[in-house]
Amino acid sequence: MRTNLRMLGYALSFFFLFGFLAASAASVGLTGAETSSDGTVHLEFDILAGSEGQMVELQQDRHPDFPSPLLRYRGSEAATYLTGLSPSKHYFRARVVGVGMEENPWSAPHLVTVRYLPRRQLVTLLAVGSFVALSIVLAIVGGSLRTRKTGA
Amino acid sequence: MIPCVASMAPTTGWMIVLSLGALWIALGIYLGRKAKTAEGYMLAGRNVGLAFGAATAMATWVTSNTMMVAPLLAFEKGIWGMLAYSSACFGLLLFAPMAGRIRKILPQGTTSGDFFRNRYGTAGWVVFLLITLVYSVTWLVTMAIAGGRLLEALGGIPYEQGMSLILFVCVAYTLFGGLYAVIGTDFVQSLIILIGVVFLGFMALRQIPFEQAYDHLATHQPGLLDVLMPAALLALFNNMIFGFGEVFHNNVWWSRAFAIRKGLAFRAYLLAGLLWLPIPIAAGLLGLLAGPLGVNVTDPSAVGPLVAQHVLDGAGFGAAAGVIILIVLFCSIASSVDSLLAATSDLLVKDVYVGWFGRTLDDRGFRKVAAVAILGVAAVAWGLALSGWNIATVLYSAGPLVASLIWPVIAGLYWKGCNRAIVVAGMIAGTGFGLMVEFGVGSYLGALVGGAVSMAFTFLARYVSPTPFTPSPVNKETELLQQLDQL
Question: Are residues B77 and A38, on separate chains, in Cβ contact within 8 Å?
């Protein structure tokens, strides 16, 4: 009976201690757009309870397992804008960091897919743009030279 | 809301702004004593020299957008983004030969409205007036908003007070001195802007070696070095055509073409374009270096001042960093606000009050009407700046509107004639299709499409039942101005 009560006490203590630790582990959520047409993405760190005022670390990798992550941000601000991402899939994850808290769990990976405008569409639009711009330049330069000569 | 970039005590901010404001007003009153006639007030006596002419054109084209949007484009779209903004210099460069032609065909012209009325009749004139007034007022409002936000972020001055102060200062010296005051203050402001921005760019490059910056970009932000980034390439053409439209049609530039001494307009605008070119490049460099310098950006629209503050802090400027940035930005905003107030009020006086309503003016009456116009434009801008409208969206959507005026201006200046109705239809169609594409497809296509559609209509107008352009009604305008000057 005494042994059973002791075991029960240990189990309850362990349960509460584990629960306490789990509740106090700092965590962060990561939100933002999932697609981009120019390599720009806005990521927000949803600092959850117990983590306010802590620093956040943001990593990026091409694979969801983060085999060779790139550090993109470490600081205490609530968001960041990343630009210049190449056309590809990019995975991001964040966690709270600080003195004695390096073991905090990472957020779920956030996937951002950067997809540029299709090449054919781009070439068509650039051709139109070049034609319009060049026509304007030629019309003004040609018109100025002609009217200067004729005096009309 | 622009994040607080460089905190300084509000009293310091107030002192700087009030001192600069007092300087501009004093300069404006001193220079404006020459504005005794209508021609003096509106066109600075048609006798502005090369240095002042180039400086005012350059300073007017440096706006808060140059200091905020150029870094933003570089931050988001890299090398081409930076060059996309600076492509607006072609507007000034191409206006150089046009300015000479304008003086030739409208020797006594006073506004761009004179041109549209002469070339395209009442319908073309009305369409032009609607487009240009919408564009000018929205541009003015965005400057006022930018000024208020910057004074709040940099100087701790509440938005409503800072925005009102900027408008008040610019209204005061424009009211007292007309174009003399505007051009004179622009000269001083242009020097401050040029020195300040080039200094910032130089300090940024001192803080991080070029190779290190390149390596960071290549590793972390390779898209910014991609010369084939579609969004950047499209931004290049859209900005260029938007710039053409803004400069070719707006009375801000035409009034200077009329004001600059005969024979100097070409050189003045050429010089202005070349002097303006390094400014968005230096400003854009700040945006490009945000990543390599380790600056975290939470609001891309403020990346320019944010990086500038970081650079100056790193160079040991401390509290002076905010002061320098505030002075440069205040000058860039004031140099555009005064020009817009003067040019827009000229249009309202000359084209609407006199031209549309058929009123006549004597010298005393002219100053009163001009004052009412300036105050009225400022009041509208103030109200809209307070309203919280997303006026920036309205300004950027003005791209198709102004782009649709490019070819009508070119045709009117250099062709012998055309079918007016088709050209006017092209202005409307260009505006309509451009806006549809702007909002329905992409914001970097509106000006391009608007310009292309208007171009197609204008070319059609050249060959389908064209009628010759009639010479400018010189006598009628000369009579009016002579009446004003004799009284």
Answer: yes
What string of DSSP letters covers B36-84?
-SHHHHHHGGG-B-HHHHHHHHHHHH--HHHHHHHHHHHHHHHHHHHHH
Closest CA to A136 of B145, B280, B243: B243
Per-residue pLDDT, averaged over A91-103, amounts to 78
In chain B, whose CA is at the least distance from the CA of A37? B231
CA distance B249 to B257: 12
Interface contact A140-B414, CB threshold 8 A: yes
Q: How many whole angstroms separate alpha carbon A3 and alpha carbon B390? A: 72
Is B78's CB within 8 Å of A84's CB?
yes
Q: Which two tokens stand for residue B347?
A: 């249009």
Residues B43 and B462: their CA atoms lie apart, in Å, by 33
For chain A, strand residue ranges (E) read 28-32, 35-36, 41-47, 55-61, 70-75, 79-82, 89-97, 110-114
Q: Extract the tokens encoding B393.
A: 């969206």
Q: pLDDT tier at A14 (50, 70, 90 boundaries)?
A: low
Burial zone of A75 (CB within 10 Å; 0-12 exposed, 13-18 middle, 19+ buried): middle
Cβ atoms of A36 and A20 within 8 Å: the answer is: no
Q: Distance, in angstroms, between B222 CA and closest chain A CA? A: 6
Kindly state whether A71 is in contact with chain B, defined as any CB-CB distance less than 8 angstroms.
no
Closest CA to B64 of B385, B344, B289, B434: B385
Instruction: Label residue A92 exposed, middle or buried (CB < 10 Å: 0-12, 13-18, 19+).
Output: buried
- Give me the residues of B, 95-134, that contact A with CB < 8 A: 97-98, 100-101, 104
* A114 three-class SS: strand
Token pair 């789990």 is at which residue? Answer: A22
CA distances for B55 relative to B58, B184, B472, angstroms: 5, 9, 29
Helix ranges, B277-362 (H): 278-288, 303-314, 320-347
Query: For the segment B171-203, what is each residue's pLDDT rounded down to a tens digit?
Result: 998 888 888 888 888 989 988 998 998 898 888
Q: How many contacts (CB atoms, under 8 Å) link A and B?
A: 124
Report yes or no: A136 at the B interface, CB cutoff 8 Å. Answer: yes
CB A45 within 8 A of CB A74: no
Give the list of residues 6+ apart from residue B161 with CB closer than 8 angstroms, or none: B151
- Chain A's closest residue to B303, CA to CA, is A81
Long-range contact list for A31-35, CB < 8 A, 24+ apart? A31/A110, A32/A92, A32/A110, A32/A112, A33/A112, A34/A110, A34/A111, A34/A112, A34/A113, A35/A112, A35/A113, A35/A114, A35/A115
CA-CA-CA-CA torsion sign (B20, B24, B30, B31): positive
Of B238, B296, B414, the CB nearest to A139: B414
Tens-digit pLDDT profile for residues A108-127: 999 999 999 888 988 998 89
Cβ partners under 8 Å of residue B154, min gap 6: B4, B5, B6, B8, B13, B305, B322, B325, B326, B329
* C-alpha distances out from residue B192 to B168, B195, B196, B241, Å: 21, 5, 6, 28
The answer to whether B224 contacts chain A (CB < 8 Å) is yes
Nearest to A136 among B104, B244, B300 (CB): B244
What's the ipTM? 0.87
